[in-house]
Known about the structure:
Helix content: 25-40%
Radius of gyration: 12 Å
Number of helices: 2
Number of domains: 1
Number of strands: 6
CATH class: Alpha Beta
Strand content: 35-45%
Shape: globular
CATH superfamily: YggU-like
Amino acid sequence: xxxxxxLASVPGGTRLRLRVKPGARTTAIVGVHGGALxxxxxxxxxxxxxxxxxxxxxxxxxxxPVGAVRIxxxxxxxxxxxxxxxxxxxxxxxLDRTESSRAD
Length: 104
């Protein structure tokens, strides 16, 4: 999955594009869409609830505290940008590990 994922190195970590579907049945990583990580989020897109759920999901999957993940662009859009306090290589490896555990 993460081979198609576009990760950019930024000072202090990694920039990751996201494609988010709020109001979904479940909260999960769905795959990759046009270089962006595609997420389904059960929370409604109101009062920042979906954005908070995105941050929690990414932090959990990557094994980071919630404060190490933040939405830096697209707060009111399905297309978002997140910055993660972790190197791109480690982000890619952890996302690959998550994908392989889902396939088992």
